[in-house]
Design goal:
single chain; mainly alpha; globular
Length: 122
């Protein structure tokens, strides 16, 4: 790949985690849920509507990033979303964990940069 073409976070995440591109949003949400949310996730999925729709949309937006530095902009928009004011999302934290997601984004881009540097040296 020419150096001017940057891979998106979604492409890098899928490559590094063996996830098919079509499953990226759900896989990212699964990785970024806090431990206590995993226990309640199945129960919440029985509720009408798609409870995690906003998290999946946020994952799609994060997937388009080509630099970890742009993550903060997406987080600001996500925090402002009205769905994040619901009780389950606020008090029970049945939603993406921003700190977990930040670590995933930083690690994914860092591993990609390291792999690129190793490839250039070889």
């Amino acid at each position: 790949m020419p150096p001017t073409e940057l891979k998106t976070f979604a492409e890098l995440f899928c490559e590094q985690n063996g996830v098919p591109a079509a499953e990226f949003p759900r896989a990212l949400v699964e990785h970024a849920l806090p431990p206590e949310a995993h226990a309640l996730r199945r129960l919440v999925q029985l509720m009408p509507g798609d409870y995690f729709a906003d998290d999946l949309a946020f994952a799609q937006n994060i997937g388009r990033l080509t630099r970890a530095e742009d993550f903060a902009w997406e987080v600001a928009e996500f925090h402002a979303h009205p769905s994040n004011r619901r009780t389950l999302r606020r008090q029970l934290r049945v939603r993406l964990s921003i700190p977990r997601l930040r670590r995933i984004v930083q690690r994914t881009f860092a591993e990609s940069e390291l792999a690129h540097e190793v490839a250039c040296v070889a």
